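Hi all, posting the design record for the shared folder.

TITLE: backbone redesign
STEP: 1 of 1
STRUCTURE INPUT:
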């Protein structure tokens, strides 16, 4: 399903993973319309993630950054596989609508009411990935300087669960990307 209200980037949430360290990722929400669009972010695992802000209003043709912070993991999951998912819900709202006006029932689906859902999987990535090019001595480096090195990344596919709950937490690291609010 193509969303007509918001474009969510990235389409899969690539979360830096490091044992005993809290890490963050940024979701960029782009309003594709000439109207104000309210959003709400839900997750299947609200105790594991802090989402700031969990709801808001994106101005016409504007963008908004949502920071998602994963609590410090205590163990590595098998094959770095993660079953966690996020849901971004969006709806057109009237001019003058503020964050304080956003209530949960705004996103309830009803006949004639357009509520769009965008589902994202969480994919763990190494927080400090090793260099894809092995370190070489200066002599070896000059011999190999015109060779391109590519790293193939495995892809995974999961079905998306509908078991989402609201996100609301108090501690968050600031978003690292400039955003128009």
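Okay, here is what came back for every position:
SEQUENCE:
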């Amino acid at each position: 399903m193509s969303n007509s209200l918001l474009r969510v980037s990235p389409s899969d949430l690539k979360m830096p993973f490091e044992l005993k360290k809290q890490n963050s990722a940024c979701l960029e929400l782009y309003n594709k319309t000439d109207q104000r669009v309210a959003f709400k972010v839900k997750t299947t695992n609200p105790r594991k993630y802090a989402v700031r802000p969990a709801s808001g209003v994106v101005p016409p043709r504007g963008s908004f950054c949502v920071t998602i912070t994963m609590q410090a993991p205590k163990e590595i999951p098998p094959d770095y596989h993660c079953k966690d998912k996020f849901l971004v819900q969006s709806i057109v709202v009237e001019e003058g609508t503020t964050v304080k006006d956003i209530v949960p029932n705004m996103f309830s689906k009803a006949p004639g009411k357009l509520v769009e859902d965008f589902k994202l999987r969480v994919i763990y990535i190494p927080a400090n990935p090793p260099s894809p090019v092995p370190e070489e001595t200066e002599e070896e480096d000059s011999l190999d300087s015109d060779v391109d090195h590519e790293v193939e990344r495995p892809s995974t596919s999961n079905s998306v669960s509908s078991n989402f709950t609201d996100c609301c937490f108090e501690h968050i690291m600031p978003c690292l990307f400039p955003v128009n609010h």
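COMMENT: Helices lie at 138-143.
Let me know if anyone wants the other runs.
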